[in-house]
Automatic annotation (TrEMBL):
Tree of life domain: Bacteria
Protein name: Uncharacterized protein
Transmembrane segments: 21-38, 58-82, 113-137, 149-171, 183-200, 258-280, 360-378, 453-472, 484-504, 516-535
Source organism (scientific name): Plantactinospora soyae
Keywords, ordered alphabetically: Membrane, Transmembrane, Transmembrane helix
Length: 540
């Protein structure tokens, strides 16, 4: 294996990925994060909290806060951007072509790791440029030190992004973690990793927080502020009053810390090529692919009328909408609405989502319902309902993505009733939300919790609308899975401003946004889905 082959794979893959909408979305969010990391001089929020003080906005401090914030943000969201490359090569047939070449599995995996790493570091580079702009915009220190600005990115952010790139490839190479289940596993694993990575015993320096904390405390002690033993924490926090300032001289890494960070990158490279032990390099003689139930050929899907399409058998037949399947009850040339109306569309979409859940999934939903029946009433909206409405996240993420997933998007784009079908998809999501949240609703009804019922109803409309808008806009499951998990997590942690289901309470009353506002936002998200569909249809 020569070095050229992995590099060529990495460059080609990188060029393809940076053209995707998901890359632009995460990149825009990273720029916004740079603004949050360097707020106005009298602002009352911080990303790096050192007690009552912050450094003046010099290059060293701006580089440090943006690098740490970028490491946190890109480690979570960047994972969802870079993953899926192995499955895409298998689905498109590129993998089978590579299997016929002399390229080794280790070379292929290393090339994909480099591609993941390039995507993430390019985002970090944009964040570094944003930090430079923010330093000049804030105007406390206009002298720019490029080394002090970029050093935190090289020592703090880059090793973390290397680990993220490697784990994304590892998940893609393990079939149970390749899909939505892996996305959920990563979200919670990343949350745990961020907590552990900030501790004093973090492996290979973790996020580098403790090293930064020692440097800041040393300069606080030199400035005789009296805060040299104060708190140090990482995360977006609101303060009661503006912070006083001191001047931080910047990072002064020793050889041991630099060696730790380099070793962390090497460990990431080792994780990336670890799947060579079981990865078959798309060779049918070495890889046991699970054929779809029934046959190995394409699935012929009929639509009412003379049109038909062949869908590759990469998923279960049950996932195909029933209104796409051949039906002896539908006369030739007539659309579904002419026979069964909207009810037939809705019933078909409900059956699609119902069959997407395995028996184990439904058993888990039943156990959550049973737990809701016996839980204390105070725990129903705060604990039981959030658990009930995180359980269907993989089902909801299918909304708006199935037509693209099965390759019939272009065909159905020219078929009548596009908005009606989308409304049926949303209705199916509402039905799943109502079914999984039925027990909490009944408990609140018996307790005469009218405010909780109103919040429940608003959330019932909001979550499927969010899933549909995310699915239609991105044509991928991952945007909703990542976004909804983050939203659900902050609600579970008591952030009332984002509570869409009435889980955050004071004196047993919801304190989040008004249900009318949440319901209006749900309608707005439906409008976004309709608008995106209309614009795409107009471009054909």
């Amino acid at each position: 294996m020569t070095v050229r082959a992995p590099v060529a794979i990495a460059v080609a893959d990188f060029r393809e990925r940076v053209r995707r909408p998901a890359y632009a979305v995460v990149l825009a969010a990273a720029v916004g994060l740079g603004y949050l990391a360097v707020p106005e001089v009298d602002a009352r929020w911080v990303v790096v909290n050192t007690g009552e003080y912050r450094s003046v906005y010099n290059s060293a401090y701006v580089g440090m806060v943006t690098a740490l914030a970028g490491a946190l943000w890109l480690a979570v969201t960047g994972f969802y951007v870079v993953r899926g490359t192995v499955a895409r090569d298998e689905r498109t047939g590129v993998g089978q072509l590579l299997a016929a070449t002399p390229l080794r599995g280790s070379g292929y995996l290393f090339g994909k790791f480099l591609s993941n790493f390039l995507v993430l570091t390019s985002m970090a580079g944009v964040l570094a440029a944003t930090g430079l702009v923010m330093q000049l915009a804030r105007g406390e220190v206009r002298a720019v030190d490029p080394v002090a600005l970029l050093m935190p990115f090289g020592l703090l952010a880059v090793p973390v992004l290397a680990v993220t790139a490697a784990i994304a490839l590892l998940f893609d190479s393990v079939r149970p973690l390749r899909g939505g289940f892996g996305n959920i596993v990563w979200f919670f694993a990343a949350m745990v990793g961020m907590i552990v990575g900030q501790g004093p015993d973090a492996p290979l320096g973790g996020l580098g927080v403790q090293w930064v904390a020692r440097s800041l405390r040393a300069d606080l002690a030199a400035a005789r502020t009296g805060s040299e033993n104060g708190e140090f924490s990482l995360g977006l926090m609101y303060l009661d009053h503006p912070l006083r300032t001191f001047e931080w001289s910047g990072l002064e890494p020793d050889g041991g810390f630099v060696a730790q960070r380099l070793l962390l990158v090497l460990v990431a490279a080792g994780i990336a090529v670890l799947p060579v032990l079981w990865f078959g390099r798309f060779d049918p003689a070495r890889t046991r692919l699970r054929p779809a139930a029934g046959a190995a050929g394409p699935l012929a899907v009929g639509v009412p009328g003379p049109l038909a399409v062949a869908v590759p058998r990469t998923s279960r037949v049950a996932a195909v909408p029933s209104w796409l399947a051949p039906s002896r009850d539908v006369p030739h040339g007539r659309e579904p609405a002419a026979v069964g109306g909207f009810g037939r569309l809705l019933g078909g979409e409900v059956r699609v989502l119902r069959r997407s859940g395995s028996r184990w999934w439904w058993l888990g939903a039943a156990l959550l319902g049973a737990a809701g029946m016996v839980a204390p009433i105070a725990a129903v909206p705060a604990v039981v309902l959030p658990l009930a409405w995180i359980w269907p996240v993989l089902l909801w993420s299918r909304l708006g993505t199935q037509r693209h997933e099965y390759g019939v998007d272009a065909l159905l784009g020219a078929y009548p009733g596009a908005r009606r079908r989308m409304l049926a998809e949303w209705g199916a999501g509402v039905a799943i939300a109502g079914l999984t949240g039925l027990v909490p609703m009944l408990r609140m009804l018996l307790a005469q919790d009218t405010a909780g019922l109103a919040a429940w109803a608003a959330g019932l409309l909001f979550v499927p609308a969010l899933a549909l808008a995310a699915g239609v806009s991105s044509r991928t499951h991952r945007l909703f899975q990542a976004g909804y998990l983050a939203l659900w997590y902050v609600v579970l942690n008591g952030i009332a401003a984002l509570d869409f289901m009435g889980a955050v309470r004071v004196d047993n009353r919801p304190v989040g946004p008004a249900p009318l506002l949440v319901g209006t936002l749900a309608l707005a998200l439906l409008g976004v889905a309709f608008l995106v569909t209309t614009l795409r249809h107009a471009r054909r």
